[in-house]
Every structure is written in C-alpha cells, then in structure tokens.
Amino acid sequence: MGKTALIVEGGGQRGVFSFGVIDSFIEENFDPFDFFIGVSNGASVLFWYLIRDELNNLEKMIYSANPKYFSYKNIIYGKDILDFYGLFEDAYLHFKPNLGLLKKNLRCRPFLSVVTDAKSAKPQYIDYDQKKIIDILVATGTLPVLVRRPSFIYGKRVFDGGISDPLPVKKAYEMGAKKVIVIRTFPKKRTRTNKLENLIAALFVLNFPKLSRAILNHSKTYNESLQFIENPPQDLEIYQIQPDTRLKTSRNTLNHRILEADYNLGRNKGRMFLKTIMNL
User: Fold this and answer.
1) pTM of whole model > 0.85?
2) pLDDT > 70? residue 265
3) What is the full DSSP assignment across 90-104?
4) Which of 60, 126, 162, 247 is the right S-S partner for 166, CB 3.0 to 4.6 Å?
C-alpha cells in the first residue's frame, strides 16, 4: 500500500496562509500521513503542526513580524537583514515548544527539512533532530544576502532548500508516496520568472559556483516542479491547498492585519479541503 505525504512550501511570511491550513488540520485531528517534508518556512509550519499544543498558530507569525528581526539597514553594518537565529532563539524561549508532544505525535515518522548543499547545490533532506532543531529550521530558510550568518548542518555549509527543491513532490514519490497533499503559498499554475534578487543572490555566492548557477536557474527548477505536479505519474494522487489569487502577504510583510487576513484565508481553505477529502 502506498504512503501519504504532507509537503509545505516556503515563502517567508506567506507561510501565515500555511499556518491557517494546518490549524484546520489540528482542529479536525487530521493526520493520515506517513512522512512530512518542509521547505524553508514550511518546515516551521510542520514543526508546530506536529506539536499541536493549540489551535491558533497565527501568533507565531505575528511574533516574527517585528522590525527587530528584519531591517535592510543591517546590510550597512554587515549584519543579517533577516536575523533568523535571533528570531528562532527568542521564539523558542517565548513559546516553549513541547518537544515531548512532537515526538509523541511524530510516532517515528520522517520529518524532513530541505536544505541546499553549498558546494554541490543539490538538495539534502534532513530528518528531525531534537538537538539541532533550531539549526535545521534556520538552515532551510537561509537565503543568500538576507542571512549573512553561515548555516552548517553536520559540518556542511547549507542554504535555503527552496533553491534546489522548492516543491519536493517528486522526492515524496521516490520515497513511496502515492498520495501527496501540498500546502502552497502561491496560486495554482503560477510559474516563476527570475528577478533582480536572483542575480544579486547569485553574485553574493560566487565562491560557490554551482550554487550561484542554481540560483540563476531557480525559475526553471520551480517550474519543472510545477510540471511534475500538473502531470504526475499515473499511480500518484496530488492534492494542492493554495490561495486562488496572490496573497496580500509578501515574503517580508510586518503588517499584522494583512497576516491575520491571509491566515484566516488559509484556515478556510483547509476546512474546505477537509470536507472533500476526509475519506483519504
């Protein structure tokens, strides 16, 4: 019998939509999954889904929407524009995640976070490690330029997992999944095009030539993932939960009202999905 996987796409603050979706899952005790894969902020969404200590995870994104953790002025001082480590360390102390609940709810199932190896530019899928959880959650979202502090996982320099595998549905299929639920932060069939930020990021990591090329090819990588989703193998069912139109939340939104609106949209989308899929 085939496995069922839950994948959560990244997208910075757009992950507030994904938090709304997983809160609808928690509300209905919905967990038919054999394994989980998170990319960038999607890994944090899964982290709190697996803990399940409350039904309102909006507060996690509200907490992060603080200029204390994000400022372009920091580039003048050679600091992180996005202080990921500071955010995660403070949030860890503030919210006190119950890792005992996570272990209980995980039930030895794989919980993978995607990172990109700096030298090879290939995706790496890091399983949950309680002792390294902050390092892993930071690493999967370490974008060049925004985060200056290097991320290392088991001795290897790594960057944001979205560079190499932004929508790891094919990986889930290779792991034996026959049903995949993907929580997306972009509308259906929205393809990617390279932006100026891709060129800047590629220049920023020229000391890692393969990674630099991967950043320049990111739109191709993303769109190939979309093609796999739209044209899956015959023995694979894919369900996407995503907004109908582009979210008002952007990658770096700090406005609490905008975040709350997109969270509620995600929660409603999750509830609508569950009405049609409870027999999964």
Assistant:
1) yes
2) yes
3) HHHHHH---HHHHHH
4) 162
User: Vertex 177, ends 139 and 111: CA angle to 5°?
Assistant: 30
Q: Which candidate, 260, 208, 252, 191, places its Cα nearest to that of 41?
A: 252
Close Cβ partners of 134 (under 8 Å, ≥ 6 residues apart) = 85, 88, 89, 92
Average pLDDT over residues 163-190: 95
Tokens of 167: 């929508």
Tokens of 139: 């690493």
- Which three-class secondary structure state does DSSP give residue 120? coil
For the record, the structure tokens of 92 come out as 């860890």
Length of the chain: 280
Residue 127 host element (H or E): strand 123-127
Which among 79, 76, 95, 174 has a CA at the least distance from the CA of 133?
95
The neighbouring-strand residues paired with 124 are: 115
Residue type, 71: S
| CA 236 to each of CA 114, 173, 178, 190: distance values in angstroms, whole numbers, following the listed order | 21, 7, 5, 21
| CA-closest candidate to residue 37, choices 157, 149, 136, 132 | 136
Assess whether pLDDT exceeds 90 at residue 79.
no
> What does the pLDDT look like over 87-97, one tens digit per residue?
999 999 999 99
Candidates 3, 19, 38; CA nearest to 112 is 38
Cβ-based neighbours of 219, under 8 Å, separated by 6 or more:
191, 192, 193, 194, 198
Place of tokens 């595998």: 165
Is the pLDDT score of 235 beyond 90? Answer: yes
Torsion from C-alpha of 172, 114, 38, 149, nearest 10 degrees: 180
